[in-house]
Structure to design on (187 residues):
């Protein structure tokens, strides 16, 4: 099977096409990232949902994909090509490039912390608590700090973070429609 050609664009091209209505922007980040800052007119469809929500994407327009820096956008681009999308472009440098260019952004007033910040907080809290409990309560608890440290090293080497994937599933890290669905299931 022939591999699709993966096309990238810069943020200026994206901005021009959004202003003329020639393209549709899909943000493939997770909800907390999107709520914390996004390009106006962007639609959130996270990388993990891109295949099951592909019907929501207009195939007649150029589809632009944006993540934080470009890696997840490339993954989403490959998935959409496999589903038969023809004109799909990954935004080089992602949202970070958009912000660096000084283009307009919007964000939710009460956005939750980014997943990266939540991971740093959770990992720090686990290490701090396990060291204190290991010192004052039961010494083997200090191994929890070692486990968290090893997990952080693994996350850096593989560029994946299991803790972030778990935190992303929590109710406050889901879009409002997901949070409503979660509340309905709980009742």
């Amino acid at each position: 099977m022939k591999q699709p050609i993966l096309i990238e664009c810069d943020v200026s091209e994206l901005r021009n096409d959004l202003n003329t209505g020639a393209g549709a922007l899909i943000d493939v980040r997770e909800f907390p990232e999107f709520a914390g800052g996004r390009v106006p007119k962007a639609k959130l469809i996270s990388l993990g949902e891109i295949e099951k929500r592909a019907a929501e994407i207009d195939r007649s327009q150029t589809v632009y994909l944006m993540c934080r820096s470009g890696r997840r956008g490339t993954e989403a681009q490959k998935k959409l090509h496999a589903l038969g999308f023809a004109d799909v472009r990954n935004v080089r440098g992602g949202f970070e490039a958009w912000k660096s260019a000084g283009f307009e952004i919007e964000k939710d007033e009460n956005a939750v912390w980014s997943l990266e910040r939540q991971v740093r907080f959770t990992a720090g809290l686990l290490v701090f608590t396990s060291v204190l409990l290991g010192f004052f309560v039961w010494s083997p608890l200090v191994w929890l700090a070692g486990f968290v440290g090893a997990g952080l090293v693994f996350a850096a080497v593989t560029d994946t973070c299991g803790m972030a994937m778990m935190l992303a599933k929590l109710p406050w890290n889901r879009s409002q429609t997901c949070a409503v669905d979660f509340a309905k299931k709980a009742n």
Observations:
- Residues 115 and 167 are 7 Å apart (CA to CA).
- The longest strand covers residues 23-27.
- Residues 178-187 have pLDDT under 50 and may be disordered.
